[in-house]
Fold this protein.
Amino acid sequence: MCLGIPGEVIEFLPEQPDLARVDVSGVRRVINVGLLSDEPPEPGEWVLIHVGFALSKIDEAEAAAALEFLEGIGQAYEDELAALRDSKIE
Amino acid sequence: MTTGRVLPTADREQQVLDRIERARRRRPKLREERITMSHGAGGKATHTLIEAVFLDAFRNPLLEPLEDAARLQVGGATVALTTDSFVVSPLFFPGGNIGDLAVNGTVNDLAVAGATPLYLSAGFILEEGFPVADLTRIAESMRDAAAAAGVAVVTGDTKVVERGKADGCYINTAGVGAVAEGVDLGVANARPGDAVLVSGPIGDHGVTIMLARGELDIEADVESDTAPLGELVAGLLGAVPGVRALRDATRGGVATILNEIAKAADVGVFISENAIPVRDQVRGAAELLGIDPLYVACEGRLVAVVDGGQAAQALAVLRAHPLGAQAAIIGEVTAEPVGLVTIKTAFGGTRIVDLLVGDPLPRIC
Amino acid sequence: MRFVDEFRDADKAHALAARIAALCEPGRQYKLMEVCGGHTHTIYKHGLEDYLPESVTLVHGPGCPVCVIPMGRVDDAIHLASQPDVIMTSFGDMMRVPGSNGAFFDANARGTNIKMVYSPLDSLKIAKANPDKRVVFMAIGFETTAPSTAMTVLRARAQGVQNFSVFCNHVTIIPAIKAILDSPDLRLDGFIGPGHVSTVIGCRPYEFIAKSYGKPVVTAGFEPLDILQSIYMLMLQLREGRSEVENQYSRVVPWDGNPVALKAIGETMELRPYFEWRGLGFISHSALKMREAYADFDAELLFEVPGVRVADPKACQCGEVLKGVLKPWECKVFGTACTPETPIGTCMVSPEGACAAYYNYGRMTRQRVPEAISIELSRP
């Protein structure tokens, strides 16, 4: 029920401003983007899809920041492990 | 009986898990008074129905193994006999139609029993008003599929029912094949150390059907993987002596077969999510719908259990054939936990892969 | 799959797990509740608990909108579906939820026409394609899903569809969380906040949890790394003695939510004075119904609904599981009388129910991350 999947907006349907075609891993689906009418998504932007509606836009900058944080933690971990290994006595 | 001592949480949890395993070993009772869609899904409900109604009524040692085909002695020769009914909706879909399924499905049940498929029967139940042109298309597909599989349709039957029944066309096929000397395949043969392989990407057929129903406004470039596996199987059996069991992954998907192995052989099956081949589009569609490709029907895929030492050889043989080009070793048979299928997820954690009760995708084959 | 695979990366999981373990104070036990059923599902589906130390326990909360539907409402839905010329439409999750006389699947076996749909828009489509039938959509879900129902009703009105109505069972999340916080049986250290509900209501509604109850909240995404990172952020708050609302799912959740969605809900629906939640009892102002202006889309007005209150079976302990007081395996009937094939309660039959998740995915002996991860991290 909480199911929300990220999809990329491909195009709007002609004469139906509320409907857009999105792509999820090569699978295409028409969804209703009426909930984003304040700031309609552009083709190429990503949205969160839930029961046939776009609930929210995916903020690519925030996503990148989140991944960067995770990368950072991952790298720090690797560094610590390496340091631990190198510092082994005998 | 109380001991006054409270066990640590982990022990109490283990006690509950043990209690559950004991309960699961008891024969499930059929509680429903009427058939529901769950009974047709190939999962737990189907198994319960078969055991409670059919096994009870027809009980005999040839039926008991409940394999895809029965192995019979007929005048000194070993013969495999199988039957399958096809109620797929829609009748025509990318990659095939009900006719292809009807031929390939039965051919494959024979092939995985280690039999050379020889002869099929075809029974048709037709709805009043069904276009003859469609029926002809179906029959011609069956002709082509039979030729490709090296079998002949030698007998059949036709019935017509009133408009509103049979949803156009239902088909039943039964098949007979010759089992070579010394071939003894069966899921009960699996033992710890064996490798588990699939012959290609999973979930293609089920997802194709679901999208072809047109109810979901989803378009994707997927098509059914329906195909005859006789040649692939013959090649494998010819080159690899240590094949313990073969199954074709239809209704209920790969997960159902793995559970059948674990249960029949009293072993564990451990697979790795990263090793399982799935097409991107199948994965995308499955994510969109919240279903797991492991449970989605295929119609041209094998699951093979092979002696661990011969796994690499088996993989090479499968990959050398066009229908096995993307074959993969997805896991192994273990001693523990008995009767359970577990998976190491792509994320690195472990979880169970149990049988589902119903099916997310009704009337897939 | 973009925005999915990156957040399932196992390598980064080890790093987060080490950090989480390092933040545990020796001898202290931590109980964190994930409110959302979707989070419960992810946790079990990906085996996330394998990455947590023994001292961190995840408690499963009541955020499973299917789980909290009382049996009486299922009976009401079946009664609706049994009316002449009615096509009932419902999300798949509801099809096997037991009422007092079976679930939707069983009702279909007795002759009702209850169809599974993936979107309320599918239901509207069925109404337009079958003008001689009366199509009812069983609306379930928290604030995540209510906007979609609302938009569908608005669309139905705009298109002049006369044979479509909604049997509204939408519930709201804050009263459920309040019920947890006020429950005397439970001591929680923090909350993994709802993800998709927050795209609609934003993060502000959770501030009272941090300010008045002193518990940290982190709204989390649904991939395993999202949840693991949220746990890390909670542990960090606890270590540093903070209690704030933080947004881990910032790529999707705007702090102020979605005003268009809230407006659509406000236009078509209003809060019921009270509503019965399975396991939690009657909670005031916790559920939605159609507004008077949209009475022609309200199935409860168009049809007679019995509205009988059905008590849960005696053996059922769903209430305590939903409140996080009991773990699924601690329920007396878990796995024996109550199984996915023979569910007694909703926790076992909903794909997001804690019992279903544990039974289908988690029912195995587990090796947790050892306490003493021997990496002393000098910086947080």
